[in-house]
Design brief:
The chain has a domain at 28-126: Jelly Rolls. Helix content is 3%, strand content 39%. The chain has 1 helix and 10 strands; from the N terminus they run βαβββββββββ. It has one helix at residues 35-38, and strands spanning 28-32, 44-50, 61-64, 67-74, 76-81, 84-89, 93-95, 102-107, 112-118, 123-126. The strands form 3 sheets. It has a 5-stranded antiparallel sheet with strand order 1-2-9-4-7. Strands 6-5-8 form a 3-stranded antiparallel sheet, with no helix packed on it. The protein is globular and about 50 Å long. The N and C termini lie far apart (56 Å).
C-alpha cells in the first residue's frame, strides 16, 4: 500500500517560483519545482538554465547521490563523462550513474534542463582531472 505520510502533493506552476541565482553554479539560474519539500528531502527537481557564457565550466566533480537524471529541454550542453565527450541536446535524457566523474564545459545561451536527484541534499565533490577539456564555443556578442 502507498505510504502517504512520507510525501505530500505538490503542484508548482510557472509563476509560483522564478529562476534565481545562488545555486550550485554561479553561471546558472535555478527554478525550484517544489519536489524537495513535497518528498521531505528524498528527491529534488529543478530547472537549470544558462545565465552567463561558459568560461571555466563546472570543473571535474562527482556527486554523492543515489539517482540523477538530466533532461535537456532547450539548447544543448557538452559534458565529459569520465573520458568520453557527450553532446546532450534538447529532448535527450542522461542518467548519471552514482559517482561518475564529469565536467560540463560548454553550453548554448538558451540551454535549459530539468535535473532530478536523490537525495535532495546530494553532495558535490571535486575530483582530479580525468583528461583534457575541449574549449567552449564562444557566444556571439549581442
Amino acid at each position: 500500500m502507498l505510504d502517504r505520510t512520507t510525501t505530500a502533493f505538490s503542484h508548482v506552476k510557472p509563476g509560483d517560483t522564478g529562476f534565481v541565482s545562488g545555486g550550485l553554479r554561479d553561471f546558472f539560474l535555478y527554478r525550484d519545482l517544489g519536489v524537495a519539500d513535497a518528498t521531505h528531502g528524498k528527491v529534488i527537481a529543478h530547472l537549470v538554465k544558462a545565465n552567463e557564457a561558459p568560461e571555466q565550466g563546472t570543473g571535474w566533480h562527482k556527486h554523492e547521490a543515489d539517482f540523477q537524471i538530466v533532461i535537456m529541454l532547450k539548447g544543448w550542453a557538452r559534458f565529459m563523462y569520465e573520458d568520453k565527450e557527450t553532446l546532450v541536446s534538447a529532448g535527450d535524457c542522461v542518467h548519471q550513474r552514482p559517482g561518475i566523474r564529469h565536467y560540463l564545459f560548454d553550453y548554448s545561451p538558451d540551454m535549459e534542463y530539468l535535473e532530478i536527484v536523490s537525495p535532495a541534499d546530494f553532495k558535490t565533490i571535486d575530483v582530479e582531472p580525468v583528461c583534457a577539456i575541449p574549449a567552449p564555443t564562444p557566444w556571439a556578442s549581442a
